[in-house]
Specification:
The complex is a heterodimer of chains A (277) and B (567). With 277 residues, chain A is α/β, with parallel strands linked by helices. Chain A is 40% helix and 22% strand. In chain A, the strands form 2 sheets. Chain A has a 6-stranded mixed β-sheet, with helices on both faces. In chain A, strands 2-1-4-5 form a 4-stranded antiparallel β-sheet, with helices on one face. In chain A, a hairpin with a 2-residue loop joins strand 4 (72-77) and strand 5 (80-81). Chain B is mainly α and 567 residues long. Classes of the chains: A alpha/beta (277), B mainly alpha (567).
Chain lengths: 277, 567
């Protein structure tokens, strides 16, 4: 049985791809950040989306989630045109942004009420799900706590829970493991796989190569605004004659040479010391 | 204004390239040079002082780049200075009739205390108390004294601008009335010292609170101090107006009395008339106070806040406050019924939740709670001593316009504006429903108590208001509130913007400028005293306007650009 045939989640027959991107280009102040991206993510897949800092990962996600307009190319999410039907897209997706802030003065309960209402859920359903999610994350005693008093990891758990509150078809995760403790990290990794197994699509952005290697069905590597590799880990590895994902990534993005960089930093520190003396 | 401060030109797309500073910003940065010298004498690290102060000025006055294109420039500061300048001319023209340099200076200094005091306890309070830069500077080797003096210098530059805007008309007018050679330098010195004294006094109070209050309670202590300061300054304003209207009091104010030793404006007025022939002992005593008090306050500030300032400021932001009750109180549950379930109720709850707990909102709005108390006391007392009971009651009935204007301006800002990303990712079609819920919460939490108190007090102080008058004034205020909400929310949802000092808009200055407009509304209403049917008709028109404006607010569409800062 195909994952999308699992009970609880139905995909329109016409939707072959959960995410379909053709010729995506985006400029910021005359600087081209994305230079023609083509991408397909099928229902029930976990896509690992990798790239160096500033490669355009978050920009891609922000376009796919309808946060950024003014781009070139065709972008369809759940078979819907992001440019023309952004609201319909937002009803179907969940999003955990990188470095997201929360209203520090609100309690967790109030935040979930807000998110639920914005998604058109009843308070009862939103709070029931939130209770369950927070209990699973070990935060069941913190429902009345102000978000400002929670640690970074706890806030990340709140963000993850809020992204799943409306049971989205596709989940966009931008560094979702940031700040999480070991238990929560294992839980989230298992959750990502289980979501995919139940037919939901996960678009997963991360710098944690080992997690991507283990959790993702397919991996797309972004360099200089272009997709330079796209396939399963086994396919990527075979094309490069073996090696870890980290080694493949370094080779494709030209991000090696750490030893030389470290030497340069240490040399500069010594220069400063001798100048000061 | 952006062009003045060296940032984007109109219609130019946002860019991440930082343009060179504009001339006004360069002038302000240049003004920080002499301040650095003084700070150096007072024990600050001059280089660090200059670096911190210049960064603060640039943060205030430079517009946003790509990631924050909605950040506006210094128009709020310009508006504040402009309004104060207009108000300064009104005062100068009124003061001309006094034909007395001492009385004119005392009047100008008294108003300066009030204006700067109110600005410092509401709009500019973050210059002294914002914990924002603590995280950045906390790990850097900056001495508490340098940090304190940089904050004070930052506040001094802005209060100096406001003071100069306000006092310059009196300075100019005085030059034609009194010997210019002595008036020009002495009045400038007196006004400058008065402004400095206000700043140091308020800084000293905050520093004392930071020092003696338990870290977990310091936020509330500061808030109560702000409300008390607001009562004093706002009450002082009306007390001054009331006193000036009495001929006997005016005469007393012109003479010399020992009690003037307790009135700070007279200290500085004595300084402005320092060249008077054969000064009395009292005059010399007042002058000595004008010089000694700012110096003593400066020493007190250094003593109170010269150590562990960073830790004390950081404590204001720590802890997050007590847990929030799972079940809202009965009053709030009742109020929620005003808002439709769904988006409107989300806006209602968001407003009440954040209004009660957000530091910036509390610091800027709660001091204004003194306003109804002072207003009702002032107009109630006036009504008891004269026959203007209906005017007084109507003035109180229309004044909530000022209240709602200020609150609607402030609710756009938040301590954590980046949290508003949630609106961008959620499938919200009608943002107006959120705004409508927030406005209903505003009416429930702020306007309703005002009107309840007013209608209860009208019987005691004003002899009562007719039902049609109550209906017309209340509905008019509601209609205007909804209209203001629509105008102000067209480019920003509640709690989605970063509060910038340079954009503070000066609530108190706005209040002073709107009051005459309200006076005209009251005048028109009073003219209809013997035409109750016209008042009833106008009340019905106002009701229609409330319904129309509510519908328009609910269907308000937000421009995509308005959400950019949050995205």
């Amino acid at each position: 049985m195909h994952p999308s045939e699992e009970p609880g989640l139905e995909h329109p027959d016409s939707v072959a791809s959960s995410v379909e991107v053709r010729g995506l280009r985006k400029q910021f102040a005359g600087r081209e950040v994305l230079r023609g991206i083509d991408l397909d993510v099928r229902p029930g897949q976990v896509l690992g989306y990798l790239g160096a800092n500033g490669a355009g990962k978050s920009t891609t996600i922000r376009i796919l989630t309808g946060l950024l307009g003014d781009f070139e190319g065709d972008v369809r999410v759940c078979g819907l045109d992001v440019r023309r039907q952004p609201l319909e897209v937002k009803r179907r997706i969940g999003y955990v942004p990188e470095n997201a802030q929360l209203y520090d003065a609100l309690s967790a309960r109030e935040f979930f009420e807000l998110v639920g209402r914005l998604h058109g859920l009843s308070d009862e359903l939103a709070l029931h799900r939130a209770h369950e999610y927070l209990s699973a994350f070990g935060l069941d005693g913190r429902f009345g706590s102000r978000l400002g008093s929670l640690s970074k990891g706890m806030r990340q758990k709140i963000l993850l829970s809020s992204a799943l509150l409306h049971a989205p078809e596709i989940v966009f995760l931008d560094e979702p493991l940031s700040g999480l403790d070991v238990a929560a990290t294992i839980l989230v990794k298992t959750l990502i796989r289980s979501l995919a197994d139940r037919g939901r699509t996960v678009f997963y952005c991360s710098h944690m190569m080992d997690v991507v290697e283990r959790v993702c069905d397919r991996i797309a590597i972004l360099a200089d605004g272009r997709i330079v590799a796209n396939g399963s880990f086994e396919e990527l590895s075979a094309a490069r004659h073996g090696g870890s994902l980290e080694a493949i990534f370094a080779e494709l993005t030209g991000s090696g040479g750490e030893a030389a960089a470290v030497d340069r930093i240490l040399q500069a520190m010594d220069d400063g010391r001798s100048a000061a003396s | 204004m952006s062009a003045l401060f060296g940032s984007r030109r109109a219609n130019e797309p946002p860019s991440d390239t930082v343009r060179p500073d504009g001339r006004p910003l360069r002038v302000l940065c240049a003004l920080s040079e002499p301040l650095a010298v003084v700070a150096g004498w007072m024990g600050a690290d001059r280089t660090a002082f200059l670096a911190i102060l210049r960064v603060k000025l640039r943060l205030d006055l430079r517009v946003g780049g790509l990631k924050n294109p909605n950040k506006v420039s210094a128009s709020g500061l310009a508006l504040t200075c402009g309004l104060n300048h207009v108000f300064g001319w009104l005062l100068a023209l009124f003061g001309m009739q006094l034909h007395d340099a001492r009385a004119l200076t005392a009047l100008a200094c008294a108003m300066l205390f009030v204006l700067l005091g109110m600005a410092l306890v509401t709009d500019l309070v973050d210059l002294l108390l914002a914990p924002a830069d603590v995280t950045i500077l906390g790990a850097l080797p900056v001495s508490p004294r340098t940090l304190l003096l940089a904050r004070t210098g930052h506040a001094l530059l802005y209060t100096g601008l406001i003071a100069a805007s306000f006092a310059s008309p009196t300075w100019i007018v005085g030059a034609f009335l009194f010997p210019a050679a002595t008036w020009l330098p002495l009045f400038a010195a007196a006004a400058g010292l008065a402004a400095l004294t206000t700043l140091l006094a308020i800084t000293a109070v905050f520093a004392l609170l930071l020092r003696v209050t338990h870290p977990e309670r310091v936020r509330n202590a500061v808030l109560f101090a702000q409300i008390a300061a607001s009562l004093v300054t706002f009450g002082g304003y009306y007390l001054l107006i009331g006193l000036l209207q009495s001929p006997s009091v005016s005469e007393w104010l012109r003479g010399e009395h020992m009690a003037q030793l307790l009135l700070p404006p007279y200290w500085f007025a004595a300084l402005a008339t320092a060249t008077a022939p054969e000064p009395s002992t009292l005059h010399l005593g007042l002058m000595a106070l004008a010089l000694a008090v700012p110096a003593l306050l400066g020493l007190a500030v250094l003593r109170l806040a010269g150590s562990n300032l960073l830790q004390r400021l950081a404590a204001m932001d720590e802890g997050g406050g007590p847990p929030v009750s799972d079940r809202p109180g009965p009053l709030r549950r009742l109020g929620r019924r005003l808002a439709r379930p769904g988006l409107e109720r989300a806006g209602f709850d968001l407003f009440l939740g954040l209004a009660a707990r957000e530091r910036q909102f509390r610091q800027r709005v709660y001091p204004m709670l003194a306003m109804p108390v002072i207003m009702m006391a002032y107009f109630g007392t006036s009504a008891r001593h004269g026959d203007g009971s209906q005017q007084g009651a109507l003035m109180c009935a229309y004044l909530p316009v000022v209240y709602s204007l200020s609150i609607l301006h402030i609710i756009r800002f938040s301590d954590t504006p980046a949290a508003a990303w949630i609106y961008s990712v959620a499938p919200v079609e009608q943002y107006g429903m959120l705004v409508c819920g927030a406005v209903k919460a505003l009416c429930f939490a702020f306007l309703l108590p005002w009107y309840l108190a007013l209608y209860l007090c009208t019987g005691l102080f004003f002899g009562g208001l007719r039902i049609e008058d109550m209906a017309f004034s209340t509905l008019s205020v509601l209609a205007v509130t909804l209209w203001i909400a629509r105008s102000l929310s067209a480019d920003a949802l509640p709690f989605t913007r970063t509060f910038r000092t340079s954009q503070s808009g000066s609530n108190f200055a706005m209040l002073l400028m709107v009051t005459p407009v309200i006076g005209i509304m009251v005048f028109v209403h009073v003219m209809l005293e013997d035409k109750p049917w016209i008042v009833v008709g106008l009340a019905l028109v106002a009701l229609v306007m409330v319904i129309v404006n509510t519908r328009r607010l609910r269907t308000l569409s937000l421009s995509p650009r308005a959400l950019l800062e949050t995205a």
